[in-house]
Amino acid sequence: MSRMAFALVAVGALAGGTAGSMRVELVAPFEIIAQHSLSGFRKFRLERMAAIDVGNPAADSQTWQTLSLFGREDLIAAVSKDYAPERCAPLTTASPLFDEIVGRARKTSIVIISESHERTEHRGFITEVAARLRPIGYDTLAIEALVNAPPGTPEANWPPFRKEPALPFFSEGDGHYIEEAGFGRLGRRAKALGYRLLPYEIVQENRPTSEMSVQQQIAVREEAQARNLAAFLGDHPGAKLLIHVDYSHATEVPRSDGSRWMASRLKSLTGIDPLTISQTLCRGNGKKVRLSALPESQPAGSFDLLVDHPNVRFVQGRPEWRRRTGDRAVAIPPALRPTKGWRVIEARSLGEPDTAIAMDRVAIRPGEDIALMLPPGRYRIRAIDLASSDQSPPKPAR
Question: Is the pTM of this model over 0.70?
Answer without folding.
Answer: yes
